[in-house]
């Protein structure tokens, strides 16, 4: 089995990138590919742009990554209570190629921020909308106060209860691997 994992942001030092990399490292029974949205930078989506360009190769490549995976982990950065422009733009392009973007893939959705809400607004939006785009959300988790709860040097969560919740969330993808091999 293969899982793709990415932070839904283009910020190179994103705390969501650190979180998704840690979450991916907890998978023990699957191959994981970490994707960087910076490698899929596209023109700002619009109908006029789509008519002019058609479907860009990078959007096709991204949707192919989803198609060729058996599961997905996404950690959402929150900008003004919503998705980052980088994520929303690639998502919009991909949805024009394949309206059911997530293609029935099992998903673990995460979010974090420096604040006590832990990007819970964007995570709620993602959890609620993913099934409409054929995502099968197996677990979701918001990590509040990232800098208080994550050890950046050790690249892991500091607090046992939060770490256990993250391990439990990610375990849903390991369980799929068990079922897949039977």
UniProtKB/TrEMBL annotation:
Keywords: Flavoprotein, FMN. The keyword Ribonucleoprotein does not apply. GO terms for molecular function: FMN binding; oxidoreductase activity. Signal peptide: none annotated. Its cofactor is FMN. InterPro entries: Flavoprotein-like_sf (IPR029039), FMN_Rdtase-like_dom (IPR005025), NAD(P)H-dep_reductase (IPR050712). This is NADPH-dependent FMN reductase. It comes from Brumicola pallidula DSM 14239 = ACAM 615.
